[in-house]
Amino acid sequence: MPARSRPTVAAAEPLSIEITGRTGLAHAAYLKRHLTRAQAILRPALREFSLALVGDRRMAELHEAFMDVPGSTDVLTFELDHDSRGRVTAGEVVVCVPYALREARRRKVPSRNELLLYALHGMLHLCGYDDRTDRDFATMHLREDEILNQLGVGAVFAPTAPPSHSRRPAAPRPQSRKSARRVRRSGASA
Description:
alpha/beta, Collagenase (Catalytic Domain), five-stranded mixed sheet, 17% strand, globular
């Protein structure tokens, strides 16, 4: 009787991470190391991840162009490619470094951990998480801190965040149909 061979399981493709920017690059190795490990925990279809570290002015430009909201924000996420099942395989996360530094000081956490929180937040958006409802917001931020604990960084979002965290608007700003279409087309998430 011939020996039965085991089915081969394709090894997961490693995540390609590119980090660019004019500010915050001193944290690039730390961010890349932890994001690679976070991807291993999440095991998404994501194969290409670009992290752009930008200043307030550039973030304000992007925030207005893609979300139709004036002013800077902490993080924006862009889906760039999908597989045949509709899962995101490539994406870009834009993090505002000065915003993260201000929040880190205010919340008394290390700046590199605040930057990691924002990058991980974007990665979770690319993995299908959303934070538009109170329930989804709580689920997403709980998952962020679970992953950060698994990475040995410790919770960053939960320990000092006030009930209405500065990154969560008190009331959603109504979107025009035009801006909603633009956001859906661009795949941007805040």
